[in-house]
Every structure is written in structure tokens, then in C-alpha cells.
Amino acid sequence: MEPPHQILQNVTAVTEFILLGLSSNPKTQLILFAVFLLIYLMALTGNILILLAISLDNKLHSPMYFFLGNLSVVDIGYTTSTVPKMMMNYLSHERTISLSGCLSQLYFFISFGGIECLLLAVMAYDRYVAICHPLHYSGFMSHKVCASLAATAWILGLANSGVHSGLISLLSFCQDNVIHHFFCDIPSLLQLSCSNTQVNHTVLFVVGGSVGIGSFVFTLVSYVYIVASILRIQTKDGRLKTFSTCASHLTVVNIFYGTGIFTYFIPSSASSHKKNQALSVMYGIVAPMLNPIIYCLRNKDVQNALQKAIGKVQ
Questions:
Q1: Which domain CATH number covers 108?
Q2: What pLDDT, on a 0 to 100 scale, did the predictor assign at position 44?
Q3: What is the extent of the structural domain holding 231?
């Protein structure tokens, strides 16, 4: 019988992973590189312009735009955590990422995703107060309250990611190191682990669900009250004008949660790798690019501020 220490020596610990990406075809990879480079540059440019406009225009120094500025910072971090590495892999024959690099990517991606969930909920609360309690808005959404809400979103998002990343760092990975994705994500790593992942799945459901589903439910309830308040407005023009103040936020919420929930809360057996990848591209890459576009198209104040900001830069 083989000694126990010899058996342990025959188990090879994984020190790096292989990211398969979205395609193995060289020509397709070049096309994907060009597409995602364009999307990434648009996301960076759009969100930086939003931050510039908010900082330079005094009219945008209000709670709604303060949270929008936070959302832009998150979207920049969100795309930067995955897209540059993916583009590097498309230009290189090596698609490897170290274990530490994989865990770092996972931490930042989950952090920014959680913070975005919480910020969208905070922005929904801001719209609820503005529409349902307009006379008390300045008191409910003071500078101190806004700063506290934003700080809470950041702290909880970072803590949530720390819990998941910390638990995954304790897992063992043996032999199989091929990730059928373009970045390191929780479901992909749990499938590769040769350890018992029951605790990870439970924490993902309880802690991750509290952040994701909790934020979604809070946002949904806020909009139930918002819609009820809007329907009580007697004139059609009044209803449309009031609804327009939250239309941009509602559009962003639908895109983000619609794709995120399908990715993390539908059993893996019910969806293919390709489907998960497509959904991840939508909420992790395309959504951060669309957010500034959506807010610019639907908001004249932002449009005017951007024109002034671009004029000052030129």
C-alpha cells in the first residue's frame, strides 16, 4: 500500500488557470479584441465625462448626481477588472492567469458588482424621497445622509466580496484548471475545486443573496411607491414629467438586474457556458458602457453640463 505522504505528492496543486474566453478561433479573437477595445474606451470616456460634468457644474451638485458620480467610478472599476486581461489574452497565445491574479480579479469584480447593486438601491430611495416626499427631500437627503449612504454601499460591497474571495482562497484546486469563461468568477471556480464547496454555496446564497436580491427587492418596493405616487397626479403632463426623473435609473436597473439574476441564481445545469458568458458580457461590460449614454440621452441637465465641460477642456 502506498504511504499517505506519497499519495499527497501525486496530487498536483493548481497554481494558475487557463481562461478559455469567448472564442478559440484566431480571426474571431481579433474581432472580439477590436469590439471590446471599443466598448472599453466608450465606457471609460463616458463615465469620465459624467464625473467631469458633475464636478464642474454646480447645478449637478445634488444627491441624485452625487450617487451617479459614485456609479460612474464603480462602472470604471467594473470593466477594468476584466476587460484589459481579456484583451491581452486575445493578443497572446497564453491565456493563463495565476491563482493570486485570479483571486484578485474575482475580488474586484464581485466588489464593484455588489457596490453597484447597493448604489442602485440607494438611487431608488433617492427617487422615492424626491417624488413621494418632496417637501422633506432636503432633510432626508442632506449631504451627511448622502455621504453615509454611499459609504455604506462601498463598505458592504467590499465586505461582501471579501467574504466570498476569502472562502474561495481556502479551497484546493487539483489538476483541472480550465475556466470556461473570460474571467475568474465564483461559479466557475467552485466547479473546478476539489474541496467541499457546500459552505461556499451556502454563503453565496445567504450573503450574496442578501446583497443582490435584497438590493433588488428594496429597489422594487421603492418603485411600487413611486408608481403609486405618480398615478395620483391628475394631469398627464405632470405624470410624464415626474416619471422622466427616474426613467434613466429604471432603465439601468432593468439591464443590470435582468442579466445578473439569470447568471447567479439559475442553476448551472439549466444554462450553458455560452449563455453565462453572454449574460456576463451584458451586465459586466456592456451595462457600464450604456449607463452614461442612458443618463445623457434622457437628461438635459447632464447634456448641458457635458457641453460646458467639453468646452472647458478644449
A1: 1.20.1070.10
A2: 94
A3: 16-313
